[in-house]
Amino acid sequence: MTKNKNKMTRRNFLATGAVATAAISGFPFVHTSRAQATMPLKIGVIGCGGRGTGAAENAITAAPNIHLIALADPFADRVERCLKSLTGTTRRRKTPLEGVEVKDDHCFTGLDCYKKLLETDVDYVILAGPPGFRPISFAAAIDAGKHVFMEKPVATDPVGVRKILEAGKKAKQKGLSVCVGLDNRHSKSTMETVKRIHDGQIGDVVSGQIYYNTGSLWHRGDEPEWTQMEYQCRNWYYFCWLSGDHIVEQHIHNIDVMTWVMDGYPIRAIGVGGRQVRTDPQWGNIYDHFVIDFEFPNDVHVMSMCRQWQNTDSKVGEFFVGTRGKTNPRREIMGPNSWKFEGEMVTPKVYEHFELIESIRNGNPMEQAELGAYCTLTSIMGREVAYTGKDITWDEILNSDLDLLPKKLEFGPAPQRAVPIPGQPRPL
Questions:
Q1: Minimal CA–CA distance to 118: which of 56, 230, 42, 40?
Q2: Are the C-beta atoms of 426 and 420 separated by less than 8 Å?
Q3: 17 pLDDT more than 60
Q4: What is the pLDDT of residues 235-260, one digit of tens each?
Q5: How many helices (H) and strands (E) does the chain have?
Q6: Are 200 and 209 in contact (CB under 8 A)?
Q7: Would you say residue 358 has pLDDT above 70?
Q8: 3-state SS, residue 294
């Protein structure tokens, strides 16, 4: 059998929290001493949109004695909206959150807002701004000695991925915890199902399919006073340098499950994609659909499909066939070893912060920078085979010099790149 040079080591697999015994028992999953459990932690949020606001609430909910003391976003209105949401009530939450202690002098704006927040005495930061900024803010957070929770994806190009890997090594040397918001890694049902897959309960995996077929997302409009940089940052999803395209920003969840089940990364990929529905210039320069064939060792292929088309049928999930059964790796095994998860669920978006907080308080750092980087790179690999029409190997994408970040990050002009066309030079 051909050895997969991209295979995860058992140690790395355990470090993701994938099969940790404590993660499958009950909530709370890890028992700490009274001193550890009550040790106060101060957090700050960089990127105060919907995900940053949600992640702040998740962190405060996850454990006691968590204090949100700082907010940062390029735009003041988003800081204000975030703070109003966290200090008020919602349809789901009828009482204000305890632990929101953000003062006016700890609200930072501008494209350099992350630098200002990192000068405060926060213990860990939530990085939830557009993914294109993630490598810069992550490296700065580690240099500042902060623990980090960063949303997926962690970059939008291979150069950014390598910056994440470099900063991740520095985090390990400093004993800093790094958690990445790949939700399935923090789902009790998925953790248990993948453990059973790796224990051989469906035999050897021979093929798979992964899907993220859904509708369209938001658009923030355009205002005459906005510069092109502000317009792109407010509508970041539709510009590849900021989002990575939806195969990287959204479909990464399914791609992560694929690499987890396969216990490694693809050796090459080929695929197609394009813009069939979202053709207006308001949708920036990203595609609206992709179909990718990811090839793994031993001629195992996983078909990846994602699209964002309004008023169409949705399908989100993963399915794998083995020599002795098949699986929906989020909850079920079918075949001779049939099994279905029926345990108590804990919201993964809360549990991932619980894990991070426990790792900080226990002095046993989480090390998920490499996991996030390679999962992001796999997603970028899929995007690039569609953009270029070329077959791409793992080594080629890992060593690519593709760098989408603008040379200047300031309000004013911004890159106005055309939609990539396979077989033609890439518009940079």
A1: 42
A2: yes
A3: no
A4: 999 999 999 999 999 999 999 999 99
A5: 16, 15
A6: no
A7: yes
A8: strand
DSSP 132: G
Residue 237 confidence (pLDDT): 98
Judge contact between 216 and 278, C-beta under 8 A: yes
Q: Domain 193-343+376-398 has what CATH class?
A: alpha beta
- 3-class secondary-structure state, position 91: coil
Fold match flag (10-184+348-369 vs 193-343+376-398): no
Sheet with 41-46: list strands edge to edge: 107-109, 66-73, 41-46, 124-127, 147-150, 178-180
Distant-in-sequence, close-in-space partners of 272: CB < 8 Å, separation ≥ 6: 290, 291, 386, 389, 422
Give CA–CA dist 385/270, Å, rounded. Answer: 6
pLDDT tens, residue by residue, 306-342: 999 999 999 999 999 999 999 999 999 999 999 999 9
User: If we measure between CA atoms, which residue out of 404, 420, 421, 412 comes closest to residue 134?
Assistant: 404
Q: Tokens 């580690």 correspond to what residue?
A: 142
Q: What would the two tokens of residue 173 be? A: 């040397």
Domain boundaries along the sequence of the chain: 10-184+348-369, 193-343+376-398
> H or E element: which one contains 198?
helix 188-198
Kindly provide the residue ranges of all beta strands, DSSP E only, lying in 191-288, ordered along the sequence: 205-214, 268-274
Element (H, E) at 304: strand 300-308
What's the pLDDT score for residue 7? 60
Q: For the segment 166-221, what is each residue's pLDDT rounded down to a tens digit?
A: 999 999 999 999 999 999 999 999 999 999 999 999 999 999 999 999 999 999 99
- Distance CA(177)–CA(357), nearest Å, equals 9
Length of the chain: 428
Map residue 37 onto helix, strand or coil. Answer: helix
Q: Give the amino acid at 43.
A: I
Q: Is the pLDDT of residue 32 over 50?
A: no
Amino acid code (one letter) for 410:
E
CATH class in words for 10-184+348-369: alpha beta
Residues 312 and 317: their CA atoms lie apart, in Å, by 16
The contacts of residue 43 (CB under 8 Å, 6+ apart) are 56, 59, 66, 67, 68, 69, 70, 122, 123, 124, 125, 126
Q: Mapping DSSP to helix (H, G, I), strand (E, B) and coil, where does residue 34 land?
A: helix
Residues near 221 by Cβ (< 8 Å), separated by ≥ 6?
A: none
> What's the whole-number mean pLDDT along residues 362-386?
98
Peptide bond into 130 cis (omega under 30): no
